[in-house]
């Protein structure tokens, strides 16, 4: 069964801890370059993560926090300019190797590939950000490991809407009971659950206190043989790191 099985990965917070030291830093660099005195602190950014998507997040910040707007350019144009500048800064930051993969990600992807499993990505972030992260952590060829990289504005509504997961299922012609999702956030889990997908959540500092009701397992990370995970909710069936054996056991 495992050969026909698909692993679907969220990116930000799941494959790598990209938010605090990646996206947040790049947003601030874009604001400074545009001559804006906006500064998204670590805690403010935690609040802003309630809104998925970089453009949507800037828009929310402007409408809710009413920061000083320097220029008279139309709002949508300002947001679009800031976001493309942020994307450039983010990619530059990734190219320094500043953001590593989370524990267990490389091992699990390698094991899945060795067993000819199907791989997919479902993310809210921009496609170029995803490919930059993969290239800088797993090498250029890793982009082709994933049959589909569903990203950003490809669907009308971002997570917690289920659109991106429905998109993956449809494009890959797979059933929801033949895959498992890896997510890190409440929004991501909601999107996957609404699509009927079993989900393993690996929390991070921004998401640790969120509600993960409905997740198959909630872990601190995927673990490694020499670095076991901590189980926050669910039954890991005696396993202490996430490999294909655990994923197979979770299907029974
Ligand atoms: C993560 C996000 C993204 C990034 C910013 O979603 O919410 O918005 O913070 O990315 P996921 P962009 O965990 O589902 O990948 O600026 O490229 O939108
Ligand atoms: Mg995420």
Automatic annotation (TrEMBL):
Any one Gene Ontology molecular-function term assigned to this protein's record: hydrolase activity
Keyword Ubl conjugation assigned: no
Pfam family, one: Hydrolase
Record SUPFAM superfamilies: HAD-like
Signal peptide (residue range): none
UniProt keyword Disulfide bond present: no
This protein's UniProt keywords: Hydrolase
Name assigned to this protein: HAD-superfamily hydrolase, subfamily IA, variant 3
Protein's organism: Trichodesmium erythraeum (strain IMS101)
